[in-house]
Amino acid sequence: MIAINNLHKSFGDLEVLKGIDLNVEKGQAVVVIGPSGSGKTTFLRCLNILETPTAGTVAIDGHMADFSKSLPKKQIMEFRKQSAMVFQHYNLFPHMTALENVMEGPVTVQKIDRAEARAKAEELLTKVGLKEKMNEYPFQLSGGQQQRVGIARALALEPKVMLFDEPTSALDPELVGEVLQVMKELALEGMTMVVVTHEMRFAKGVADEVLFMDAGRIIERGTPQQIFDHPKEERTKQFLNLIQNADTI
Amino acid sequence: MYLNSIFTNPERLERLLDIAQSSFLPLLEGAIQYTIPLTLISFTIGLILATLTALARISTVKFFQIIARIYVSIIRGTPLLVQLSILFYGLPTVGITLEPFTAAILGFSLNVGAYASEVIRAAILSIPKGQWEAANTIGMSYSQALKRIILPQASRVSIPPLSNTFISLVKDTSLASFILVTEMFRRAQEIAAFNYEFLLLYSQAGLLYWIFCFLLSLVQGRLENRFDRYVSKA
Ligand SMILES: Nc1ncnc2c1ncn2[C@@H]1O[C@H](COP(=O)(O)OP(=O)(O)OP(=O)(O)O)[C@@H](O)[C@H]1O
Ligand SMILES: [Mg+2]
Question: Helix, strand, or coil here: A212?
Answer without folding.
Answer: strand
